[in-house]
Amino acid sequence: MFTKILIANRGEIACRVIRTARAMGVKTVAIYSDADRHARHTQLADEAIHIGPAPARESYLKGERIIAAAKSAGAQAIHPGYGFLSENAAFAKAVTEAGLVFIGPPAKSIEAMGAKDAAKVLMRKAGVPVVPGYEGKAQDAATLQRQADKIGYPILIKAVMGGGGRGMRKVDKDADFAESLESAQREAQSAFGDSTVLIEKYLTRPRHIEVQVFADGHGNVVHLFERDCSLQRRHQKVIEEAPAPGMTEAMRKRMTDAAIAAARAIDYVSAGTVEFIAEGDNLDNFYFMEMNTRLQVEHPVTEMVTGLDLVEWQLCVAAGERLPKLQDEIALCGHAFEARICAEDPARDYRPETGRLLQFSVPEGPFIRLDSGFGQGDEISVHYDSLIGKLIVGGADRDDALARLRAALGRSHVAGIASNLNLLTRAAGELDFGTGHIDTGFIAAHPALLRHTAPDFPGWACLALAEQLDLAAARATDASPWAATDNWRLGGLAPLVWHFEYDGVDHAVSLLAQGDHWLVSWRDEALPLRLVERRADSFTIELGDRQYHAHLHADGATRWLKVGPTRWRVRALGAFGRPPERRDQAGGHGGSVSAPMPGRIVSVQAAIGDMVVAGQILLRLEAMKMEHNLVAGSAGKIAAVLVAPGDQVVEGAELIRIEAGA
Ligand code: ADP
């Protein structure tokens, strides 16, 4: 076994690899960029080496520098994690040529599966079913359009070098093809340095089922059962589980056989995942989609149902050992889910969020595991992806695991940045999810999952009470804050009215002190309110005859509130404050479009003098590895276009100015 390895990655996966290496007595070397000087993976490793500026292409993608770091630290092997250089055959080759071990498959296996088009051709030859489509060399727009027309809409354009849902566009009708092609190619070029695409028949509401395979250098290939990753947003996984609901032994046999055939066809070694797309409830029609020649983000669910440590297996195989277990020694036991907690706002088109994590907690328990690269106080930077952590929850069977997942999600909390926790909590709570009726269109078919709803009475009561207590505490000079609160009156017995803004709407909550409690009113409701307990940011209040537990974090004027399983971001406007001016909704009020986050302008779809309508896409911005549409907030005439494609913009930069509709 190695005595020291370098981990060519960051975030949760770097921490994950360090954990196993440490347990095996293997020393670890982390690499870090300027943005990650204080990151958890940097702190956790035995040694850490700085490799460059924050942008990944100048640090985590600098293969040569990483290899030099490994050599200088005396590491014998490099674990690439996922993303970054993990599926870069040239890097794997360079590592080997430098006399180090690449903890992953041989470069030629990566190459064979690296391009989705070549992989499909290879798999078809190996007798594995593939999705019907075009994967030809001719890439001119006319040929591609002809092929798409021939396949029949809807179709899917995929970047052959793509991953993580990038460079992928669904096209519903021929008229939309050209524009989607252009944007897919552009995203592919910028993300993968290659704009080649393939076209596939788009299966409506399919399931994504993948098989974990493992091979050693001695000719042994096994599978570790399947995972269902059908709960997706924009073709990216959100909640994964193992095993797949409704999987029969017969179907599992066909799928795992196909996966092992795929691995054997490319002389595979190490951990790999063969992804299939399956149509319909009976999973009878399944097709090969691609093989990921690395450890997957969702590998923990497999670990939970097999009791194995996949990173340990990777290290053993890379060190030349045989697989620790053969097929008949590997058993499937129980059920597991993984929920990806991301810094993004699902209700705002999944806009990535950056900033400092004021709070990040998930409950602890015997069936709960948290894989994360971040802790409270850490910064989610614009330079990398938005994954904060993965909550993995197991149970005796699907119902048991799901009940535990629902409870754990309901008690998890992120504050300081918006997260997808409400979406995860609601999705896991859906009846259809409970019955296993999932497919890749699940979130789209349940639009209520994304909707923001304003806090209800307990939330407002807690918010107002916290303001009042803090104000009283600030005013109390020599008395205890509680005494001051009880005795203090502003304007005699007049209630104090606190204003908050949620989603552009002003909410007024009034508090009237009444001896040992308050009378709180919101809209046309009024109830007695007591503070039962306040410990740092956690509150227990009694509203009417019920107790509610809440978490409340203040950051400037922003209040991060959680009551029960729901979280909100609210703005505190103060007491006696005048209701704020309503924000302009759609309508001829003019205004400007500004950058919601730092990024690069990829295209501008409006010119000076154009008349635009509210909601019309005006620009595309690339940030945090995704393209984002920026739309007109109101109708009007374009008065100024302040940026051009290729421009880097800072957060808040004005990009386009719109004049009230002429
Ligand atoms: P990536 O490598 O970018 O993750 P994949 O090829 O693995 O791309 O596909 C990602 C997701 O896109 C799948 O899980 C599935 O939801 C969807 N998808 C891919 N191919 C098809 C298809 N032919 N029809 C419908 N959905 C598809």
TrEMBL record:
Its cofactor is biotin. Residues 583-659 form the Lipoyl-binding domain. The keyword Nucleotide-binding applies. Residues 120-319 form the ATP-grasp domain. CDD domains: biotinyl_domain (cd06850). It comes from the Bacteria. The keyword DNA-binding does not apply. InterPro entries: ATP-grasp, BC-like_N, Biotin_BS, Biotin_carboxylase_complex, Biotin_carboxylation_dom, Biotin_COase_C, Biotin_lipoyl, CPAse_ATP-bd. Keywords: ATP-binding, Biotin, Ligase, Nucleotide-binding. Residues 1-448 form the Biotin carboxylation domain. This is Acetyl/propionyl/methylcrotonyl-CoA carboxylase subunit alpha.
